[in-house]
UniProtKB/TrEMBL annotation:
InterPro entries: YpeB_N, YpeB_PepSY1-2. It comes from the Bacteria. Signal peptide: none annotated. This is Germination protein YpeB. Residues 30-167 form the Sporulation protein YpeB N-terminal domain. It comes from Paenibacillus marchantiophytorum. Residues 185-377 form the Sporulation protein YpeB PepSY1 and PepSY2 domain.
């Protein structure tokens, strides 16, 4: 019986074994294909990084070689520096370095990109590079030489020893902190050298990733956690503070110091109410009350009116709605400061309103709080009619006003703001009210334009 059963089962077992073997082989081949593809992408990104850093060093040298009075040559050189730095940053993001301390090098490249961009868009005929900026450019040339040499050394080891980036990824992901890997050691050396560089003068208007909040403009004294609790209770309309949890943030850095307040929502941590206050003065910069909004019983105009009233009742005065959006039955309305009939875009607040009950469920006021300062709003040197000449004759202008915006150099400038339609698109254009030059163009999404039109009815 067993012999007969084995004769019958043997072909099935053999087929199952062959099938499992084939499946395992195909899975192994597919896995190898994926690993080879990932390795090739890593190798390409690394060699591109080496090439772009090398070219960056050359371009910095070429820029310094021409006379600073040669505005076209300097502009071309700085544009190339910005382009190559941005490409190097892109190459780094494609490498498995997330677990490797490489932030100093990334910050250095980001600041270099911002510095070169700011210099390239500036009118050097009126504002040529000063002595400090030339010193910074020279220091960047010297530092890029060292970085190029270190990355070339790593590249030489990768090529001569057939090193794999997949080994780097596995080494970084392992819990063993001792990494004996030439690539890891090489990039660690680069980051240490960059961290040892003297602090460079990136300029007062640098769009740096290290830019900080300006606490000097905040009014009031430093608050304590116990002083923040009553402010949060008053804002939320609560009678007690016993359920609140307050965490102090920022350590010893004044520009980052704040308090985070959490109030239990009663139905799990996902419903907790969250508020953030500045340590100096105790100004509310963030509020969120998460909840599901099942239906929209009110429109955007009603939401705008409620949000405007809400802001006026608190410390956010003289605000005007400048942008509307709606998502999952929640209105998101952006307000900007209004001063002497001028819209101050750098000082704005985002307000979320639930369209089922018109309850304000969120505020983001960081730009408003830290953007407060005394502004000298003079009269525009160029009239609106003159500024219109910079627009396309095919643009149908629907509104015009004065506004303060931040330009590419992170400087506040007074502009004529025009909103118009062309080619079935809606545009918002800003023309400098002093020079008549174009500062910025924005495309308004159709749904935003429709929301604004409905709110204006």
């Amino acid at each position: 019986m067993y012999k007969r059963l084995s004769i019958v089962m043997f072909p099935f077992l053999l087929l199952a074994f062959i099938g499992a073997s084939v499946w395992g082989y195909l899975e192994h081949q597919e896995k190898n294909t994926i690993l080879i593809k990932a390795e090739n992408q890593y190798q390409r990104a690394f060699h591109d990084l080496s090439f772009h850093v090398d070219k960056l060093h050359t371009e910095l040298g070429n820029t310094l070689a021409v006379n600073s009075a040669s505005e076209p040559s300097y502009r071309k050189g700085l544009v190339n520096v910005w382009r190559l730095t941005s490409q190097a940053q892109s190459d780094i993001t494609q490498l498995p370095l997330t677990l490797l301390p490489f932030n100093k090098t990334e910050d250095f490249l980001a600041n270099m990109a911002n510095f070169s961009y700011r210099m390239s868009v500036r009118d050097m005929t009126k504002q040529p590079l000063n002595e400090n900026e030339l010193k910074t450019l020279t220091a960047l040339y010297d530092h890029s030489s060292e970085i190029t040499k270190e990355i070339r050394d790593v590249q030489t080891k990768v090529i001569s020893n057939n090193l794999r980036w997949m080994d780097v990824e596995m080494a970084l992901a392992s819990e063993n902190e001792t990494h004996d890997n030439a690539i890891i050691d090489g990039f660690s050396t680069v980051d240490k050298k960059v961290g040892a560089y003297e602090e460079l003068n990136w300029g007062p208007g640098n769009l740096s990733v290290l830019s900080t909040n300006n606490v000097k403009m905040l009014s009031g004294n430093d608050m304590t956690a116990e002083e923040i609790k009553p402010k949060a209770a008053q804002f939320l309309g609560l009678s007690g503070t016993s359920a609140m949890k307050v965490v102090e943030n920022g350590g010893k850095s004044p520009e980052y110091q704040s308090f985070s307040v959490v109030v239990p929502g009663g139905q799990g941590s996902e419903n907790d109410i969250q508020l953030d206050y500045t340590k100096k003065g105790g100004h509310l910069i963030y509020f969120m009350k998460p909840r599901m909004v099942q239906s929209a019983k009110f429109d955007l105009r009603q939401a705008r009116d409620i949000a405007n009233e809400f802001l006026d009742q608190h410390e956010y005065k003289d605000m005007s709605a400048v942008s509307y959006d709606q998502y999952q039955n929640i209105a998101n309305i952006i307000f900007a400061k209004r001063e002497k009939d001028v819209t101050i875009y750098p000082q704005q607040i985002s307000v979320k309103v639930a369209l089922d009950t018109l309850e304000v469920t969120g505020i983001q006021a960081t730009d408003y709080i830290y953007g407060q300062k005394q502004r000298q709003l003079g009269q525009p040197k160029i009239a609106a009619a003159e500024a219109r000449k910079q627009l396309s004759p095919n643009l149908k202008v629907t509104s015009e006003s004065l506004a303060v915006i931040k330009n590419d150099l992170d400087e506040e400038v007074l502009c004529h703001e025009f909103i118009g339609t062309m080619n079935n698109n809606i545009y918002r254009l800003y023309i400098n009210a002093d020079s008549g030059s174009e500062e910025k163009i924005e495309t308004i999404r159709p749904e935003q334009a429709e929301a604004a039109a409905n709110a204006a009815k």
